[in-house]
Design brief:
The protein has 7 helices and no strands. It is mostly helical and 144 residues long. It has one domain. The protein is globular.
Length: 144
């Protein structure tokens, strides 16, 4: 495993298991070790981990190859405006899960153009979103 791949794995598994400090340290190291093109790959890796978690939680669920797709619903009106970084993370995750590279590229470009702090917050939110799915897999697989 190369250094960035190891950092991605560390960030994700740390976030899944609630080790916020280790997840933040790994995410910081990723940010300092990558350029914008590589960071897009990092975001896709996080989104792929979330996609795999959804497939493990619901093996009979969606299949983009069959035209099936994940969707988003805003349950609480105004939630997306109240937390734009999480909204971005959810949109990026869903676009990636649905195998929509044009949308993932467009969303990534939007986050990148928003500035360093907003970009960092959006990537952090993506990690949190997919880690919550991973945590659900861990909990579902625990013996009763």
């Amino acid at each position: 495993m190369d250094g960035i791949t190891q950092l991605i794995a560390t960030a994700y598994t740390s976030a899944v298991h609630g080790d916020v400090d280790a997840a933040c340290d790994a995410l910081d190291a990723i940010g300092f070790s990558t350029d914008a093109r590589q960071m897009y790959g990092v975001c896709c890796a996080f989104a792929e981990a979330g996609t795999r978690a959804v497939q493990l939680l619901d093996p009979a669920g969606f299949d983009p190859a069959k035209g099936e797709m994940l969707g988003l619903s805003e349950i609480t009106p105004g939630a997306a405006e109240a937390n734009p970084h999480t909204a971005w993370a959810m949109r990026f995750f869903v676009a990636h899960a649905n195998r929509d590279p044009e949308m993932t590229n467009a969303l990534y470009a939007t986050a990148l153009q928003a500035g360093p702090q907003q970009f960092s917050d959006s990537v952090s939110a993506l990690l949190l979103v997919v880690a919550s799915l991973g945590r659900s897999v861990v909990q579902a697989r625990r013996p009763s």
